[in-house]
Every structure is written in structure tokens, then in C-alpha cells.
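Cast an eye over this sequence plus C-alpha cells and walk me through the fold:

***
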Amino acid sequence: MPEKIGDSPVNSQSISSLAERQFEGKPIVLVVDDNPGQQKLFLLISSALGIMAHIVGDCDEAVSASTYFCFDVILMDVRLGAESGLSCTKRIREIDKKKGRHTPIIAVTALAMPGDKEKCLQSGMDDYLSKPFTMAELKEKLAFWLQEKTEPVAISSV
């Protein structure tokens, strides 16, 4: 099974690990999801797609990770425990503003009611992917945002 990058909460050792792995040339994606089953699924998917995943379980951990490391993309669950993915996105956008960057954030959520996508985009998210999704759908979203951010990045075929 793929290994989770770093420990939660974020600490200097996990940031050092992220920095070392960035030089491997693989995109590093922050996954923010409080469901252990979904976290395991994202680890498996990220391994299959040839990307590195740093997984955190709540907004505070996501904000901490974003403060100390620049991720290529963030996959954000909208329904987190104490704080929603929408408000978490706003906090990360404040960090991005202070650091002069824009990290693509993709909402990954079971919310699929009319208006939900618009709420995600209004909160500062860049894109929206509803659960359940296929690996091909996730691969397409990641490829688009990784290409927008940097030079084209190859994502492994599934």
C-alpha cells in the first residue's frame, strides 16, 4: 500500500519529507478529507496516477500544511468535521494571497444539489468533482489544473 506523506498534524519532519519528494518530479496533492476510508482510497488512487498525496483530516491541518508548503493542487472535501471545506478554502486563499500564489482547489464532495457547485466556486474553489467519481474523471481534473499551474505534467495511465 502507498505510504502517506508526513504525519498529521503538520510538523517540520513532514514538511522536510514533502520538500524532498517534490524533487522526485511528481506532483504533490494535498487531500483534505476527514473520512479514513476516503483517505485510503485517495492514497490508492494517487499511487495509481503517479502523484504524491499528503493527506490531512481537518481544516486546521490543511491550513498548517498550506502555510509551510506549496502544493500543486488541493482536493478539498466540502463536509469536514468542525469546519466546512468552504470556510477552509477561504482560509487557504488568505495564505495564498500573503504568499503571492494561487493553489488550485478542487471540491470533492457528495453534495450534488443544484447550487452546490456555485457555492464551492464562490468560496474560492477552482473546480468541482462530485462523488462518486471515476478515476478517469479525477485524472482529467488533475491533469487540467496541473497543466494550468506548471509545464504539462504526465499523469500515469490507469
About this structure: The longest strand covers residues 28-32.
